[in-house]
Amino acid sequence: MVNVPEPGFVWTTDVAHGFVADPEDPLSAGFRRAVDAVLTDFLDRQGYELEQVGPELEPVLELARTFVGGGKRLRPAFCLWGHAAAGGDPDDRQVLAAAASLDLLHVSALVHDDLMDGSDTRRGVPAAHRQLEARHRASGWRGSPAALGQAGAVLLGDLLLMWSAEMLDVALQHFGSDQAGLARLVAHQMRTEVASGQFLDVTASFSPLDGDPQAAVDRAHRVVEYKAARYTVTRPLELGAMLHGVPERPLRRALEAYGSHVGRAFQFRDDELGVFGDEAVTGKPAGDDLREGKQTLLLAETRARLTGPALARLDVLVGDPGLDADGVQQARGLIESSGARARVDALIEEHGERGLAALDEGDLHPAGRTALERLAHAALRRDH
Description:
Its cofactor is Mg(2+). The protein is mainly alpha-helical and 384 residues long. 72% of the residues lie in helices and 1% in strands. It has a single domain (27-380), classed as Farnesyl Diphosphate Synthase (Orthogonal Bundle). It is built from 16 helices and two strands. Strands 1-2 form a two-stranded antiparallel ribbon.
């Protein structure tokens, strides 16, 4: 028998009452608070269901709240303003709820990503698997703390993925069947693409380093398109637009081109921050991507440019989990001197410009266009 929430417990997007979307500031504090409120309300409902299972689930909800409670809310913003670009109302509370569900999907991916990468921190706090390991040690439980951390993180990520789908489905009940059906198709495609892109990324990390350097560069571009660009920008835009109805072909092409270019530029900047970012700002240890040996475009471009002892030294440094501050500086120096960082910076600018130019190719609603212009600049010119 399905548990029924206590009397008076009703999940409603009225928790975001008073929010007014502002195309001049699409990532405003008010927007982020509204997304936070909708997500908190949803997690409260899920918390009641977990309580019925037993107190053992308390750390699961606690971790979900911790990691869902942060972030830039870029994916919900692209969804909301994709809806507005197609002529929809950006103040529609059900659109806001559908958009917010994308951040549950994002946190699911982060939990799994941190586990696969062996990351110690996320958003300035210990990663989910590390927190579960610490709980094991503090409780004096049997077995391996690492095993509990790994298993718990897999299940937490899976649960967040299912909650994302549930939250979207609840929101879609308020739309017409055609709109809801189209939005679900986009969501299904987005989930498949991000998982496929993640697998491409994993295989890249284990592939031999003595292959064709240009093939590695090409693969890095492919990883970024599927793991980042479509998942972060293109599909959220498309999902939002579908909630208003099927966009005209020129508008859809414009949103797809904008999404691909802006999404790529966003990820290239993210990869650069993973090597050169300030830990106090990014919330992750400086040079963590180097220790994890992530085969990003930045690293692929570096390897394509280095030869001899310099390349051999880079391969010793990258992927060393014990890489110290001096090693991080050495690797940074090799990347800089190779010209790879300058190349990636140029690509960020190029894709940003092409993304903005794509907005001229479709008949976007003025408010939506303004917001997408602002979002492009926010995604590209960031330090965290």
